[in-house]
Amino acid sequence: MKETISDNLRQLHGRIVEACEEYNRDADDITIIAITKTHPAAAMKMAVAAGIHNIGESRIQEAEPKIKEVGQIGRFHMIGHLQTNKVKKAVEYFDVIQSVDSYKLADEINRRAEEIDRVMECYIEVNCSGEEQKYGVHPDTVPELINRILNLDNINLTGLMTVGPLTDDPDDIRKAFRKCQELFKAGRDIIGDDFDTLSMGMSDDFPLAIAEGSTMIRIGTGIFGPREF
């Protein structure tokens, strides 16, 4: 499995370079998050050994035992929907919460972070595709939410996250990503240079996300192969 992960990462880096050359981006500006949900803790270790520094998980109950097993071998990102009753553990085990989709959730993250004297790095999740089954705030509410979260002392708001639409139409995918990039620029106008991360693009659509300004791509299948259910 270790060799497979290393081979997949080499291919992934090649695809990133190709996309960056095509869309006039710098490959050094793209951060890879290795998504290890449904994969064992050993996969985390192998990815880190192959050069990965950031690991993503989407469910607290799955992530907790794996993070306990591997220790602080990288930066752990919470990328899945987060319920308020799971925030205490999320703040304890993760370095970044990418899925802030309400002020209520942000307020609870702030409260729990304050309890352990921590400032939690967070991104706002935006539903730029308009699909009802997806989580994320409505694009029109993003500037207001940014300004409200800025009043929370124990949150460091550094970016936006979105999930591309479920379609094979590249124009529709790019349109959704472009909308998030516009909101990201608006966030930088509010916060400044510290608002520096645009997390969008997964194994199937990351070249289109790079085309529209993504600085962080979330890759699972492209590194580890099909999920193990």
- Class in CATH? Alpha Beta
The number of E-state strands comes to: 8
Estimate what percentage of residues fall within beta strands.
Answer: 15-25%
Structural class: alpha/beta
Alpha-carbon distance between the two ends: 17 Å
Catalogue the unreliable spans.
none
Helix content: 40-55%
CATH architecture: Alpha-Beta Barrel
Subunit arrangement of the protein: single chain
Strand neighbour order, sheet with most strands: 7-6-5-4-3-2-1-8
Task: Give me the CATH fold name.
Answer: TIM Barrel
Shape: globular
Radius of gyration: 17 Å
The residue-averaged pLDDT reads: 96
CATH 4th-level superfamily? Alanine racemase
SSE ordering? HEHEHEHEHEHEHEHEH
Structural notes for this entry:
The protein has 9 helices and 8 strands. With 229 residues, it is of the alpha/beta class. Strands 7-6-5-4-3-2-1-8 form an 8-stranded parallel beta sheet. Strand 6, helix 7 (170-191) and strand 7 form a beta-alpha-beta unit. Helix 2 crosses helix 3, helix 4 packs across helix 5 (103-115) and helix 6 packs parallel to helix 7 (170-191). The longest helix is centred in the last third of the chain and has 22 residues, at 170-191. The radius of gyration is 17 Å and the shape is globular.
